[in-house]
Amino acid sequence: MLRSLTTAATGMIAQQNYLDVIANNVANVNTTGFKHSRVEFQDLLSQAARTPGAMMNQGTYQPVGIEIGLGVRTAATTRVFSQGVAISTGRDLDIEIEGEGFLQVMKEDGTLAYTRDGCLQIDALGQLCTNDGLLIQPAISIPRDAREINITQDGNISVSVAGQTEQTIVGSLQLVKFQNPSGLLSIGHNLYLETPASGNPIQDTPGQNGLGLIQQGMLEGSNVQIVDELIGLIKAERAFESNSKIIRSSSDILQVTNNLT
Questions:
Q1: pLDDT-derived band of residue 58, with 50, 70 and 90 as boundaries?
Q2: What is the pLDDT of residues 205-234, one digit of tens each?
Q3: pTM above 0.85, yes or no
Q4: From residue 66, how far is each of 4, 10, 52, 71 by CA, in Å?
Q5: I need a labelling partner for 106 at 20 to 30 A (CA). Which of 35, 163, 186, 256 fits?
């Protein structure tokens, strides 16, 4: 059996994975706070018919060897946490994290998750939450009679209440950062979970210790660049087509060989 058959097959599988990642990126081009992924490839082991540096006759060494690669595999899908485009909404509870950092939310099972989605809501109890009803941590309650909500760049939330001339501070948004944000586990719903690869979350005030600032009335859009994704799509399609042609050519060679017998 020709090695080129299995080698080209690994190339087709790898390019299919590439297409799957591109499809997910493009599908989330309008998802708030979405971070695109890129595919990392690795070559497989090579069969060495002659090892470089092997001793030849009369004490000389082989300057180059004979190695035949066995294909490629997908090594990783790295999530890129570059800043997304800023979208002005004018809504008091929409915030954008300008720089590094995540909002901390509590899931239904009591565990913590992290998000860049700043489209905040107020639940029936007046607590600040996400679109899915997950409570922002530390918990912040908004009075029922609040008329105006103001969020400063360092996360302080103040409200105007009927009968009072000055605004009252009701809480403060805190951000967390990770040593390796690409090591976070995406669980959908714009949420990430801590993993051993990401490191422990470091919580602090926005604008402190490298954390970003809060921008009220803004949302962070996806950082997907459609042009880059289309270029990747063309590259993946051409590579997939080339590998399929190698398989057809190998099949033709085997057919000719069979006809000779």
A1: confident
A2: 999 999 999 999 999 999 999 999 999 999
A3: yes
A4: 16, 21, 8, 16
A5: 35
Together in a domain, 142 and 120:
yes
Alpha-carbon Rg for the chain in angstroms = 27
Buried b (16+ CB within 10 A) or exposed e, 127-166: bbbbeeebbbbeebebeeebeebebbeebbbbbbbeeeee
User: Are the beta carbons of 241 and 19 closer than 8 angstroms?
Assistant: no
Q: Are residues 90 and 216 in the same domain?
A: yes
Nearest CA to 121 out of 109, 100, 99, 103 is that of 103
Q: Reply yes or no on whether the pLDDT at 50 is more than 90.
A: no
Domain enclosing residue 193, as ranges? 86-220
CA distance readout (Å), 96 to 89, 126, 213, 228: 10, 21, 8, 24
User: Do residues 231 and 206 share a domain?
Assistant: no
Q: What confidence category does residue 261 fall into, taking pLDDT thresholds of 50, 70 and 90?
A: low
Pair 179, 238 in one domain: no
The answer to whether residues 21 and 136 belong to one domain is no
Count of C-beta atoms within a 10 Å radius of residue 58 = 5
Polymer length of the chain: 261
